[in-house]
Amino acid sequence: METPGSQAWLDAMAATAASYRRMIDATVDQLSDAELHTRPAEGINSVAILLRHLGGNLRSRWTDLFTTDGEKPDRDRDTEFEDWEGDRAALQAQFDTGWQALTSAIEQIDETNIDQPVFIRGERHTIAQALTRSLTHITYHAGQIAIVARMVHQGPWHWLTIAPGQSQQHNERTWGTASSRSVFEDPSQGGDKPN
Hints:
This protein has 195 residues and is mainly alpha-helical. The chain is 50% helix and 3% strand.
């Protein structure tokens, strides 16, 4: 049975995932194909590798979440950390497949199944645990993507959050609106400043 606030919680989880997707997309859009595949140092993953890993992880975790374990037998996690040999479009498609598995799963969760357990590597999880685990994994790698991108990018950078030295101007312009969250803002959810 659905607990009070569970729909609000699911909506917040979906909105948080969407905000990090916007951050990832805004970062990747600034990179050339060469930069996308550049490792900033030996042993450090490129942005392409991080996208490949996230796509593989999310596809495995969220496809058929109520009927199969989140670590699918066809997943080869180790290859996710090898250099991507395909083109940018194929990488994006692989990442999108994983992301779609996550968003579709969130949309399928309702009062009839929110209390159903799910399993990851044989470990029982509540929906709340599985979603929290997944979102913290996304945020961890989104931060890595942003840092690696800044290290390998040549040329000007479009800030994804409040640019240095711009906090006061940003607050004056966006106070009390969803725009105060910068890239994390949902553009469809404008917001009016309070009177």
